[in-house]
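Hey, sorry to bother you again with one of my protein questions. I've been staring at a protein lately and its backbone has me curious. I owe you a coffee for this, so here goes:
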Amino acid sequence: MILPGATLGVLGGGQLGRMFTVAARTLGYRVTVLDPDPYAPAAEFATAHLKAPFDDRAAHAELSSTCEAVTTEFENAPASALESIAAFTVVRPSGSSVAVAQDRRREKGFFAEHGLPVGRFAIVESAADIGPALEQVRLPALLKTARLGYDGKGQARIEKAGDVGAVFEQWKRVPCVLEELLALEREVSVVLARAADGTVAVFPLAENRHSRGILDVTIAPARVPEALAAEATALATRLAAELRYVGVLAVEMFVVGGKLLLNEMAPRPHNSGHYTIDACRSSQFEQQVRVLCGLPLGDPSQHTPAVMVNLLGDIWAGGVPRWDAVLRHPGAHLHLYGKREARPGRKMGHVTVCETAPGRALEVALEIRRSLGIGDEE
């Protein structure tokens, strides 16, 4: 057990690293952030900032010698970096778990190999794979890069067979996964924390709406039958056990024909779990600290219905947004990430609305979206 007063390390200094750092500092830990960005949002709250590339061996050595435990805020941190640091200090989640999550080929294969429900998919690593892939996956479909795709990036809709080859060439033949385009009823996600002894604490199922491939609105708890929510929890818990995962894990799922299909996982806290900061007894970031340090897991129960709205850089186009339009609502909680440049599609913050009635929380959240000039979901 690593007690408060110790120094923790985190690979990545974005908003997830920032919220982890706030949770760790609140509990009394010191935090070292590794991120090459001199203005990394997490560094504003950290006690030390290593301004070096994520694969910098000297930085790894410093984290190993000065931190009693190290975690990551994003799945694209080099798995090899986590493994090299793990030779000298505690690392959670493991590099091997992160490696599965950061490659869609391994991720989808892991789901299928362990009997977890997943939509039809095929791997495209060369032009010769395109024909067999089209025999396995019906069109329309989505072609996704195997690595480094997020928030709608690295994805293309495939309407006809010839589109696959054209996009594959446009992407310079990087490995891809072709996925059947499903008739989605809802998109949901499970965020859980799993300790080294196998203890699991699961947050309530969240319902997600996306716009332009980026999470727009999260409703928690999700508006689904209790049996479906219980099944989603069971699937995510089983996945974490099969991975031998230790840390906070997010699992995105589709509801298709009343049944659940796994979409992807994130080996870290997740955008759809931000509501836990204001609406649950323990947040996903406090759980991340607890798991990392071997402390007892916190209570994940939700005390207030909540709706979260993402704030993208688009709303800064006309200047600083009118935050009074947000804060005039007593149930609204504004979280800004401290990023210096607002760009279209860039996550700059979020608002969580907490109300005693779920319908009222959604009503206020949608009113806030409109007041900030956020367009309708797609």
